[in-house]
Automatic annotation (TrEMBL):
<feature type="domain" description="Pyridoxamine 5'-phosphate oxidase Alr4036 family FMN-binding">
    <location>
        <begin position="5"/>
        <end position="124"/>
    </location>
</feature>
<feature type="region of interest" description="Disordered">
    <location>
        <begin position="174"/>
        <end position="204"/>
    </location>
</feature>
<dbReference type="Pfam" id="PF12766">
    <property type="entry name" value="Pyridox_oxase_2"/>
</dbReference>
<dbReference type="GO" id="GO:0010181">
    <property type="term" value="F:FMN binding"/>
</dbReference>
<protein>
    <recommendedName>
        <fullName>Pyridoxamine 5'-phosphate oxidase Alr4036 family FMN-binding domain-containing protein</fullName>
    </recommendedName>
</protein>
<dbReference type="InterPro" id="IPR012349">
    <property type="entry name" value="Split_barrel_FMN-bd"/>
</dbReference>
<dbReference type="InterPro" id="IPR024624">
    <property type="entry name" value="Pyridox_Oxase_Alr4036_FMN-bd"/>
</dbReference>
<feature type="region of interest" description="Disordered">
    <location>
        <begin position="21"/>
        <end position="40"/>
    </location>
</feature>
Amino acid sequence: MPKPAPYLPLLTTHLTSSPTSTSITLTTLSTPPLSKTPLPRSRTVEFRGFFPTLNLHSSAIQSLKDQHIGLNPDIYESEMIALTTDKRMEKVQELESSGGVVEAVFWLREVGNQWRVRGKGVIIGDDIQGEKEREARGFVERGLRRKDTTTTGDGDGDGEWNWDRQVDMYFANHSPGMRGSFKNPPPGTPRSQQPENPELKLGQKVEDLKDKVARENFRVVVIRPEEVERLDINDPSNPIRTRWTAVRDGEEWEEVDLWP
Ligand SMILES: Cc1cc2nc3c(=O)[nH]c(=O)nc-3n(C[C@H](O)[C@H](O)[C@H](O)COP(=O)(O)O)c2cc1C
């Protein structure tokens, strides 16, 4: 089982002290045949917590209960970064064809810290019958730790922890309008092109957490960190730059202070 990364308490504190800036600049690599030569691709995405810990809105909890999906028990933790996306977007193909190499950067203005997280990103949320999905879940599983629930109880869920329900929980935590965006016309295609499927249009609201069309496109990206760097610029005369590197598949972490 991987050990908790030594930087995690500080990064968590910084993220919770920066409620207005939990977006990430996520860089992936576009490799041939997606592009002629390898090219970096960056975009903003929303940080959705450390997999599988989710700060569920009360309306999400209500929908999960009402639709008889329920909640997973809160028994796992990790330092893997979760975000959500649409499988039709380019970052998904880029991750799949580049071996998942990513850098995720947080600039947390309120605390004057930049965090750069390099590692491997995989995509979950497809049918478990597929080999890619099984491999991705296996990869994420190797980064999970069982929480110490001796003092907190066994996590208060509905039955056993399971992957499909975990993806349902991420979907439920979006507003009905955001859920509807997974039924938009294909992202990145010309607006002059009408989608063949009449169910694909802008501005839809989705209440059904199992909506077939939206769930076909909804995915969770999970990034397992391998190297993490913090830059603290609060004291301009002495910025702090620290790098942590995972060794033996995250069993240990090496920490080095660097000149800024
Ligand atoms: C503030 C903000 C938050 C965003 N959050 C997400 C997100 O969580 N997931 C996502 O896929 N795209 C998000 N986007 C849109 C992406 O920046 C990007 O336009 C989209 O993912 C398509 O990128 P791609 O084709 O390179 O994959 C966000 C954009 C902004 C401005």
